[in-house]
Design goal:
Growth Hormone, Chain: A, 13 helices, globular, mainly alpha, about 80% helix, about 425 residues
Length: about 425
Amino acid sequence: MSDVAPSGLKAYVAVTAAYWAFMLTDGALRMLVLLHFHTLGFSPVQLAYLFLLYEFMGIVTNLSAGWLAARFGLTSTLYGGLALQVIALVLLTQLDPSWSVTTSVVFVMAVQGLSGIAKDLAKMSSKSAVKLLAPSEDGALFRWVAALTGSKNAVKGLGFLLGAALLAWFGFIPALGFMAAVLTLILLAVFFFMPPGLPGGVKGTKFTAVFAKDRNINVLSLARMFLFGARDTWFVVGIPIFFYGVLSDGSEDSARRAFFLIGTFMAVWVIGYGFVQATAPRWLGARMSERETIQAAQKWVLVLCIIPAALAVAAYLRLPGLTGIVVFGLLVFGVVFALNSALHSYLILAFTSTERVTLDVGFYYMANAAGRLLGTLLSGLSYQIGGVALCLGVAALMAGLSWVAALRLATTAPAH
């Protein structure tokens, strides 16, 4: 830490705290929307529709957010993300139960799209800040980005549990109002107490600069797209609905119990994923060369392919104790997925230059959002067509495509 100024460290802490607060509400909102509308009778495909615009706007936002941050500064995009999330939460409280299914889907899709913009503004700002604020000592960048990303995912995991608990205890609308009020207070606190340490914008930055020019950044972005598609193909709709069918008999008490158990599983999965991601430098070695890190990324995504493929076979054969097998298998998937994600998060910052960090990180997370969009759509479609077996089989295919893309990473990248 000796190479980082106190103001820079304070800025890093403030950015991290703001990002934590945002991700807590983001995780809670996802569970609120998924479980609330499932109990209203929405099909798996209709549930997927609710999140499609959220993910699509992530693609658009990440392209433009890198440019906005380069032009107006990282604090502007961070505050914008927090403010838009508050607006999205307030708008969702206006949902009218008397509306038709079509009207409800369109309204929630639109508000979720706004939330998608908010999330990726906050994410791009926070991740870019690490590149700019991390000390220059060997291995520090890997440790800092792993700590931010891992802790963020742990907080988002708590958000899944919070959302399920708030829905069970207070209902949909009161839960949204509570989260909007808390996030507003946090936005005000961050706005008034954010220390200096993040750079302002450069007014002459052109929008065309957002497109990555480095081959490794393009290839890594493609691998990232399929990696997150592999996760969200089972994560968004398929597995929560599978568990709900196992845990609930349709009564109010069993539904409430199912909410808690599903929320708990999702929370444990994401918290565990975040813990592994945060400690990945200790698992893998923070002082690996860039070449060694690329080789590790290629190896671990191949390992990842095997897990959903094995679970898909178990589900297709309807093995005894299938629910327990799926739970255990997905926890193992979370460990391996976290290692892959941590390696990617480090590599994007290693590949980019300080001058292009917001642009390249924005482009990379555009690919991340594209993977989530693809995974979200496939989650609803594959589960509705072939149940949990097809859902997991498609996830294995997506992981395989990520491995194929990762093999194209050049192990001798040009210096920045």
